[in-house]
Design goal:
Blueprint (H helix, E strand, L loop, with lengths): L3 E3 L6 E3 L1 E4 L10 H13 L4 E3 L8 H10 L8 E6 L15 H15 L4 E6 L8 H13 L3 E6 L4 H13 L4 E4 L14 H8 L2 E4 L30 H5 L5 H8 L1 H8 L3 H10 L4 E6 L4 H7 L9 H11 L21
Parallel strand pairs: 3-4, 3-10, 4-5, 5-6, 6-7, 7-8, 8-9, 9-10
Antiparallel strand pairs: 1-2
Length: 337
């Protein structure tokens, strides 16, 4: 079964393997398969589920809501997010204005079929809205009982500090940040993680397998396997493109021996690596087939010794990205209309 961890310094416990439906639900896989994946996650002990209004332009939230219907609500931890353009994508259908946050939470609750979400997250930083307005809107969402906790996603250390200071003044706290993090992408280690740890903010990280590249299924010089994300023209191919360079794929293949020596599959090695960092509250995994979850869940509770961690660093060498400045480039300025 999956191990639980505290979300930052809050009292909320979440499964250290969290199921996410970015790309897959409503786009890459059919609804029946998506629902099967959610039910498999539940059977394997996952109770934490991450989605966002923008995923498949709201369809992912609807699919997750259908998949979780009939489950005991109090036994689930449901996360969603607000920021990116949705619906007809008008000028107020985007960002972290009070208008968009209030309309966003109501729409998410309706699609998910619940009265509240456990965690509501700012999907990016909004340079066009005063931070005070955003934090006041989140405070009101919490006071209305529509979200129990508030978090952010891909904010810089400076933005996290400013947001936490305002949140504290308004009677709530930021408890989470949702950044990209993997053995290949470590940009949060230099600034974001130290600031977050100081402020009691946990990391719920996405792409712990670098969009599936760390599974080892993509070989240098070979065509992507049929049905894989890199072969998916609906959206997956674009998100994984930066990892498909020959030097990256070659380095990843050097991890195969490390995984075998540790008695792990490559997906388990990749996720276990992320979970060795004590600042990480959870790693988000997705699936286009239920059997993928049965493999990745096996990373829960795995302890990698120092020799294995060093071997991973040696295998990946200089293809690892560490520049903290890359976090600053994630949030659009101006925001997309």
């Amino acid at each position: 079964m999956v191990t639980y961890r505290h979300l930052g310094s809050s009292g909320l416990k979440i499964t250290e393997i969290t199921y996410g439906n970015w790309i897959t639900h409503g786009s890459q896989v059919e609804a029946d398969t998506a629902i099967d994946c959610v039910h498999t996650a539940l059977d394997l002990g996952i109770t934490s589920f991450d989605t966002a209004d923008v995923y498949a332009n709201t369809v992912a939230e609807e699919t997750l809501g259908r998949a979780l219907a009939g489950q005991r609500r109090e036994s689930l931890e449901i996360f969603t997010k607000v920021y990116w353009p949705i619906g007809p994508k008008g000028p107020n259908d985007v960002g972290l204005s009070r208008k968009h946050i209030m309309e966003g939470i109501n729409g998410s609750l309706r699609r998910l079929g619940v009265d509240y979400v456990d965690l509501y997250q700012a999907h990016r930083y909004d340079y066009e809205t005063p931070l005070e307005e955003t934090m006041q809107a989140f405070a009101d969402v919490v006071r209305a009982g529509k979200a129990l906790y508030i978090g952010v996603s891909e904010w810089t250390a400076e933005q996290i500090r400013a947001g936490q200071a305002l949140a504290s003044q308004m009677g709530f706290r930021l408890v989470s940040n949702q950044p990209q993090y993997s053995a290949l992408w470590r940009v949060i280690e230099g600034e974001v993680i130290p600031a977050s740890t100081e402020l009691g903010i946990g990391q719920i990280v996405f792409s712990p397998m670098a969009q599936g590249v760390l599974s080892g299924k993509y070989l240098p010089g070979a065509e992507p396997p049929a049905g894989s994300r890199a072969a998916d023209d609906k959206g997956g191919k674009g998100t994984i493109a930066r990892w498909m360079r020959p030097e990256v794929l070659t380095a990843v293949q050097r991890l195969r021996g490390v995984a075998e020596e540790a008695g792990l599959t490559m997906p388990r090695l990749a996720i276990a690596w992320v979970l060795q960092n004590p600042a990480i509250s959870a790693a988000i995994v997705g699936a286009s087939r239920p059997e993928q979850l049965r493999d990745t869940v096996g990373a829960s509770g795995v302890v990698l010794d120092e020799a294995v961690m060093r071997a991973i660093d040696t295998a990946l060498g200089d293809v690892v990205t560490r520049d903290p400045a890359l976090t600053r480039a994630v949030s659009p300025n101006p925001r997309p209309a």
